[in-house]
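#onboarding

Welcome to the new folks! Below is a worked example of what a typical request in this channel looks like: someone posts a single protein sequence, and someone else replies with the predicted structure as tokens. Don't worry about understanding the tokens yet, we'll cover that in week two.

Example request:
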Amino acid sequence: QVQLVESGGGLVQAGGSLRLSCVASGSIFSINAAGWYRQSPGKERELVARISRGGSTNYADSVTGRFTISRDNAKNTVYLQMNSLKPEDTGVYFCNVEVTSYSRLTYSWWGQGTQVTVSS
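Example response:
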């Protein structure tokens, strides 16, 4: 089993910044790819940013240049630095990690989500 704990969400004015964190714990041999997704009211969950184990990143067009995803493999933690926030960034942000366990099985795990609200 793997547990993901997200933090850092909240209410911020447009133009402001937030930093989300996702800490993974449990039966973790290695974390492979990891990413942040968001679900806005009335919309499907969408990819915001993703990072490979080696550090390669990709971003949704809507956040490129404003958001930065990073990871600390020693701490089993993934971050999302969000700058120049816009009201349309509002939503529940979910962490997703691909974990290889000590038994060498690989599964995808989701966090519980953290609310980000950007006021205009």
